[in-house]
Amino acid sequence: MPATQVDKPSAYLKDLSAGLVVFLVALPLCLGVALASNAPLFAGILAGVVGGILVGALSGSHTSVSGCSPALAAIVVAQITKLGAFDTFLLALMLAGLLQIILGAARAGFLAAFFPSSVIKGLLAAVGVILVLKQIPHVMGHDPDPEGEMSFEQPDHENTFSELWSTLFDIQPGAALVGILSILLMLLWDRSRALKNSGVPAPLAVVLLGLGLNLLLKQLGGSWVIGATHLVQVPVAKDLGAFFGFLQFPNFSALGNPAVYGAAFTIAIVATLETLLNLEAVDKIDPQQRHSPPNRELIAQGLGNIAVGLIGGLPITSVIVRSSVNINAGARTKLSAIFHGLLLLGCVVLIPGVLNLVPLASLGAILLMTGLKLASPALISQMWTGGWKQFLPFIITVLAIVFTDLLSGIIIGLLVSICFILHSTLKHPLRRYNERHVAGDVLRIELAHQVSFFSRATLEQTLRSVPDGGHILLDARTTEYIDADVLDLINDFRHNAAKVRGVQVSLSGFKDKYPGLEDGIQFLDYTSREVQSGLTPARVLEIFQEGNKRFREGRQLTRDIGRLVDVTSAGQFPMAVVLSCIDSRTPAELVFDLSLGDVFSVRIAGNVAHDKVLGSMEYSCAVAGAKMILVMGHTSCGAVNAAVDLICRQKTALEVTGCVNLDSLVTEIQSSVDLSTCKREGAWLPGEKAAYANEVSRRNVLRTMRMITERSSTLTALVEEGKLAIVGALYDIQTGMVSFFQTPGSVRTPLPVPSVTAV
Q1: Distance CA 224, CA 217 (A)
Q2: What Å distances lie between residue 203 and 300, 325, 360, CA to CA?
Q3: Could you read off the pLDDT of 473-484 as tens digits, one per residue?
Q4: What is the DSSP letter of 84?
Q5: What is the pLDDT of residue 169?
């Protein structure tokens, strides 16, 4: 949906309903994280309130929801124990928030860009797996968590799997019924177009179903009654005074304790990394694919952590579980996050009794289905088809997070990705190209984007492999960084080994970034007087054939155009003359990958040999020394198509176009048309006219070659002396391929191209 549609009232209604669903999911998670952190239960509620209202309002993300993070539970436990008191921990939390603000102001949000997509997708999938594993017992009416809370701390995995096994034999019938029906309702909701378009999100319908079933099962009595341990349990504040009594304040007298600053640094770094990764992951699953500004997010999170530190809450980060539920519930803007925070604030005082009637099985079903979407088979298949370099970091990240904790798993996944990057750097630190220039062969070494010391050994081996008297070009045009060790290696080779062995070293792309390594081309990459004098017509044709092959394969030779402008200003020594069509798709220098000054180009519609064209070619060959004349037509030629169309319709160019000078060109081309095969307009079969015109283009090239020898005794004499060859060619505008051919009398010594009898 376009961003302009987000502000419609219907979008706001979806935000409010999504906020309600997130609130119902976040409430037990707030309590569970607080319980896992050995902190007051109310501290988890406060983190959700501040994360929703304050961070939600300040954040630039439309879909991210912040609150207390399950991944930080172990760190919170350790720091509270280390500092000795919860109020001292609150002081460290405030300082951590201040550090996050500094990081945001310093634009440290760019760190998220350095995490590979395989690690981020592994994070999403791992959270999905953990959600499924943790919620199966709740959905089936088993109660593995202390006091029935839906804690999300990293569990003892041996116990987790034993609990999954025991779930099969120890279930509460009422809760299991609610869980199974909730899953069926969500599946039905996803498959029914009417329900999906009803405007009511499936998670909200599930919560209402669970609430209604709980009340109904109470009436049935017996074993079907859902016990308190299988229901949401919200701390009850009887009045506003009791609510404020839950607040705790930091111990500012501990500012002199060095341990406080260490704890603040630890919390800030972990919370920052988790927030940046979660933000990146949430943006990937946002249906509208919006971008959340990371630096603004860090400032918002920092202000949130200062606030919770002041009133007795837990550390805040962007939380992938709540954010995923938020997106799946249809949220469009951050109004849903703010509304969820307001509901958390109001529930403790206003409706704790109603909330405590919601079965955990309903919420477990919502989280289980969210987990299945995050760890979907489609995602796993996508990573598998991406190759093992994508799949291994992804699956290792998933397993590491599931079997350790979120932060450790991300670090392990990142290290694995770095190993693959290093392996790729070691395996392909540079690319070698053997380029054949007019003056000889050059080994071009294209350096990588980042040339670290890992590339030194491979580069040194490559430099040693250059034969004595050879030429090497170090190409750093796309390189951003070169390690000092590599620079020393290049300098040492240039000033020592290269001089002793007679190896010429050229540099490109170094500019003035590296002292002592200024750009400079030492070989001839253009046609000079010396190069021209050593060329034969056969060698010129080879150069054209090789250049067209490079053109088709996208392997054009490396050239410094600015330098070529300077060196070619001293004189002109063409290797060939190219008579081609004026068509914009057939520039000879591009089609044959030639340098400045390598050819004299004569371009005229239909590549015909008028007297002025012949005069230009005579000067090019007899005076300037060109060794080959290439007459090049091309497929889908506009001039040829027009000539065929006009002659078949028995019209002139003046009659049809109003161009007074066009008929002399058209008449020349029409000499290659066989009138007996011409058809009226409408009589051509599909594709027949285009093929016919292409054949006329070929015949026109042959005729032009014959006209050159018939009309110019100067050029004919050069051909007979073996100093010149006249070659024909047809350029295919669809493939870029040039087909060469010759005619009897156009060369003294046959060339390695087909011989065609002229018409």
Answers
A1: 6
A2: 28, 9, 13
A3: 888 887 888 888
A4: S
A5: 52
Q: Which two tokens stand for residue 375?
A: 């760890």
The answer to whether the CB of 216 falls within 8 A of the CB of 359 is no
Q: How many CA atoms lie within 13 A of 709 on its CB side?
A: 24
pLDDT at 151: 44
- 27, 146 in Cβ contact below 8 A? no
Q: Which of 22, 17, 6 is nearest to 370 (CA)?
A: 22
- Decide the pairing of beta strands 316-318 and 66-68: antiparallel
Residue in the block written with tokens 């179903």? 209
The answer to whether 34 touches 40, Cβ cutoff 8 Å, is: yes
Give me the pLDDT at residue 404, please.
79
Residue 391, both tokens:
């799949």
Q: Is 517 helix (H, G, I), strand (E, B) or coil?
A: coil
| Spatial distance between the Cα atoms of 513 and 623, rounded to a whole number of angstroms | 45
> What local confidence, expressed as pLDDT, does residue 90 receive?
95
CA–CA distances in Å: residue 520 to residues 437, 501, 672: 16, 19, 50
**In this structure, is the dihedral angle defined by the CA atoms of residues 113, 119, 121 and 126, taken in order, positive or negative?**
negative
**What is the distance between the alpha carbons of residues 87 and 67, in angstroms, rounded to a whole number?**
19
How far apart are the C-alpha atoms of 733 and 723, rounded to whole Å? 31
Q: Cβ distance 228 to 244 under 8 Å? A: no
Q: Give residue 267's identity as a one-letter amino acid code.
A: I
Cα 197 to Cα 627: distance, rounded to the nearest angstrom: 75
Neighbours of 706 (CB within 10 A): 18
Residue with tokens 């009133």: 311
Of the candidates 426, 439, 399, the one whose C-alpha atom is nearest the C-alpha of residue 522 is: 439
Nearest to 344 by CA among 45, 663, 8, 702: 45
Q: Please tell me whether residue 567 adopts helix, strand or coil conformation.
A: helix
- Specify the pLDDT at position 6: 46
The length of the chain is 759
Torsion of CA 509, 512, 513, 517, to 10 degrees: 70
pLDDT at 340: 93
Low-confidence ranges of the chain (pLDDT < 70): 1-9, 32, 35-36, 70-71, 74, 112-113, 143-170, 199, 201, 234-243, 406, 424-429, 512, 757-759
Do residues 147 and 233 touch, judged by C-beta distance below 8 A?
Answer: yes
CB contact set of 417 (below 8 Å; sequence gap of 6+) = 116, 118, 119, 393
What are the angstrom distances between the C-alpha of 744 and each of 83, 712, 750? 98, 16, 9
Query: What does 104-131 look like in DSSP terms, one character per residue?
Result: HHTTGGGGGGGS-HHHHHHHHHHHHHHH
Residue 580, beta-bridge partner list: 603, 632
The CA distance from 622 to 539, in Å, is 19
The Cβ-side half-sphere exposure at 707, using a 13 Å CA radius, reads: 21
What amino acid occupies position 187? L
